[in-house]
């Protein structure tokens, strides 16, 4: 099947109409017709009749379908905007209809695991890098697509939806993916940078969620800006060492998808990860918080994965390790903070 034989105008595909997918669909719809994929027929009907998706307003340039084949036939470029927990399953649903000409960009800030049948993160205590998949690795493993990219940066969906100025990074090994992403998304309110280190950019977006949970916890304890500055700078160092161990470049952590997103999410009540930490510090249990949240806070699962990775890596990540104990072993946040304040960090900058 050759996409060039089609005479119909091509849509840009968006898979997932959650908070971020809806915003990206609207940004794309300013320049091109967009087709979004949703699993539920009632969501598709709502979009096609009233141009809303569960409370979020969508452009009239957006249509919806429940049919992955229709998306793949109608769109040469597809944006996957699905949380990591459902990512592999959704990519598998699309895989039979994808061809090498498709260009795929994802916006997911989480990780997947490549474990044996019957194993899961609860049962496997130690994880090697080869058992961790970024979302671009999932796409490359599950499909025939080659031109794959990711989108990451300080992009709180609530602010983007209000049309506030922001910027993002499109990362890919292929310059044409970066150029296509820039051309589709860029506007006077949305700047789009390029980066060829896709793993570094993906990992930056994933790891900042851990530090955002910790930042929310500091705020929940009523601590001030000195403590936050300390957390953000030491968090960045932890991201650099972990990012390096996971195959990313230091440079990407220093960029928009790393330090840029870290500052944003460590400071915003609109960040779900920050909110998790804040509520924990106010005394809510993780189970209560998860039961209340209808959106994803990727950092919780990421903490678990990185803790298991640390068991096989020659590396210490004290913020992540202590946050793991707070989230999953009932360590008091004050005790974790006390431990970190006594931790013998000596060298300020040890990564350049
Ligand atoms: N919301 C934000 O400000 C930003 C979110 N992100 C990342 O984008 C990803 C998605 O986040 P949100 O849109 O905020 O999440 P969300 O929880 O608001 O929405 C997720 C969407 O994915 C759909 N979905 C989940 N599993 C599915 C499946 N198996 N098949 C089909 N659809 C499925 C849900 O129905 C929902 O529409 C996350 O990895 C998040 O870290 C990145 C930047 C900003
Ligand atoms: O990644 C985000 C903004 O860049 C969104 O952060 P949360 O997932 O914590 O809401």
TrEMBL record:
Any one annotated GO CC term: cytosol
Organism whose genome encodes this protein: Algoriphagus chordae
InterPro entries: 6-PGluconate_DH-like_C_sf, 6PGD_dom2, G3P_DH_NAD-dep, G3P_DH_NAD-dep_C, G3P_DH_NAD-dep_N, NAD(P)-bd_dom_sf
Broad class of enzyme this protein falls into: oxidoreductase
Residues the record lists as binding sn-glycerol 3-phosphate: 109, 153, 208, 261, 271-273
Binding sites annotated in the UniProt record for substrate: 109, 272-273
Localization terms from the record: Cytoplasm
Enzymatic reactions: sn-glycerol 3-phosphate + NAD(+) = dihydroxyacetone phosphate + NADH + H(+); sn-glycerol 3-phosphate + NADP(+) = dihydroxyacetone phosphate + NADPH + H(+)
EC code: 1.1.1.94
GO molecular function, one term: NAD binding
Transmembrane intervals: 12-30
Active site: 208 (proton acceptor)
Similarity remark: Belongs to the NAD-dependent glycerol-3-phosphate dehydrogenase family.
Residue sites binding NAD(+) per the record: 16-21, 272
Physiological role: Catalyzes the reduction of the glycolytic intermediate dihydroxyacetone phosphate (DHAP) to sn-glycerol 3-phosphate (G3P), the key precursor for phospholipid synthesis.
This protein's encoding gene: gpsA
Pathway, per record: Membrane lipid metabolism; glycerophospholipid metabolism
One Pfam assignment: NAD_Gly3P_dh_N
Principal location listed in the UniProt entry: cytoplasm
Single Gene Ontology BP annotation: glycerophospholipid metabolic process
Entry protein name: Glycerol-3-phosphate dehydrogenase [NAD(P)+]
This protein's UniProt keywords: Cytoplasm, Lipid biosynthesis, Lipid metabolism, Membrane, NAD, NADP, Nucleotide-binding, Oxidoreductase, Phospholipid biosynthesis, Phospholipid metabolism, Transmembrane, Transmembrane helix
Binding site for NADPH: 19-20, 39-40, 109, 157, 272, 296, 298
Glycerol-3-phosphate dehydrogenase NAD-dependent C-terminal domain segment(s): 197-337
Keyword Lipid metabolism: yes
Domain Glycerol-3-phosphate dehydrogenase NAD-dependent N-terminal: start-end pairs: 12-176
Record keyword Cytoplasm present: yes
